[in-house]
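INFO batch 0412 | record 1 of 1 | parsing
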Amino acid sequence: MTEKKILILFFHPRYENSFTNKKLIAAASTLNVITIRDMYDIYPDYNIDIKAEQQLLLEHDIIIWQHPFYWYSCPPLMKQWIDLVLEHGWAYGKTGDKLKGKAVMNVFSSGGTFEVYQKNGRNRFTYRELLSPFDQTAHLCGLHYLPPYIVPGANRITQEVLEEYCIRYIEILNFLQSPKMDEQKLATIEYFNDIKFGTWQETFYKTH
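INFO prediction complete | emitting tokens
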């Protein structure tokens, strides 16, 4: 059984000023069998090469949308990528089954915290509730929607705390590469943040 190939599509219009995402990308870059694409660098004019993006999706098993959480959603280039690349008849619809069985997840930095993203918090909705459009997009395309991984309070995070999030990110990526990873078991949790360090991976491995 071979390792699963991971495609990280990184969307950040101000990457040069992003302390958090620079560290996350640097951490991910240390691993093998991972393709990382800085989408704003590749498409500064928003002129997305649809066929090239679709081919990359076909060549990978797991897609990660990494981005800052802008206005309870994603940066504009990521929305355009979804609108254009996930075409009817290719990604969804009667003949749109090219992504069926693959997996996708959101990894993002947020200025807010889990405390303000809840029913009684300032933002009134949880992160998972606000991510419902991405969840439904995945469902429509036959993709497994994996729990998101979030770096909260990113505007005020310390170097030490961010290092811990980077270590966890590497741990998650290593786990996702394993052919034993069970998407159905992962569906039982809301966030990768909820899982403790250690031997948690074994809980979400296939048993056969």
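INFO post-check: The chain is about 35% helix and 15% strand.
INFO record closed
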